[in-house]
Amino acid sequence: MNGTSQPRLPIVDLHVSRAASGGYSYSIDWAGDTLLEDHGLPSIAAALAAAGDDAGDFLGFRVDYSAVLIGTYAPQELRASSKDIADLCVERHAKFSGPE
């Protein structure tokens, strides 16, 4: 290495949850601080895609849905595969937390 490499931005925590009103929200957190959040989204997939769009240059996301860890994904994966990851969120949440 020649010492000129760019620093990599961190892998941040992406929390997706369902509101009592039925909409979905997400927050992107790093080191205990909320960096970004959005509320009132129509689906888990919409929340994941929106987070991917808002990602800036983050290296990746540790995704959890209602406190169940789903996996680590690059921003482009969230945007391109939000429906598949949303299905996984529902499946793993049901497996580890019971039905919503």
Written account of the structure:
Helix 1 crosses helix 3. This protein has helices at 44-53, 75-80, 82-97, and strands at 11-18, 24-30, 33-41, 60-65, 68-73. With 100 residues, it is of the alpha+beta class. The longest helix has 16 residues, at 82-97. The protein contains three helices and five strands; from the N terminus they run E-E-E-H-E-E-H-H. A five-stranded mixed beta sheet has the order 3-2-1-4-5. It has one domain (11-95).
Head-to-tail CA distance between termini? 50 Å
Radius of gyration: 14 Å
Helix segment tally: 3
Tell me how many strands there are.
5
List SSEs in N-to-C order.
Answer: EEEHEEHH
Instruction: Write down the overall mean pLDDT.
Output: 88
Largest sheet: 5 strands, mixed
Please, what is the oligomeric state?
single chain
Strand content: 35-45%
Low-pLDDT stretches are none
Structural class: alpha+beta
Brief descriptors of the model:
3 helices, 100 residues
List the helices and strands and how they pair.
Elements lengths: L10 E8 L5 E7 L2 E9 L2 H10 L6 E6 L2 E6 L1 H6 L1 H16 L3
Parallel strand pairs: 1-4
Antiparallel strand pairs: 1-2, 2-3, 4-5
Helix pairs in contact: 1-3
Would you kindly provide a brief summary of this structure?
This protein has one domain (11-95). 32% of the residues lie in helices and 36% in strands. It is built from three helices and five strands.
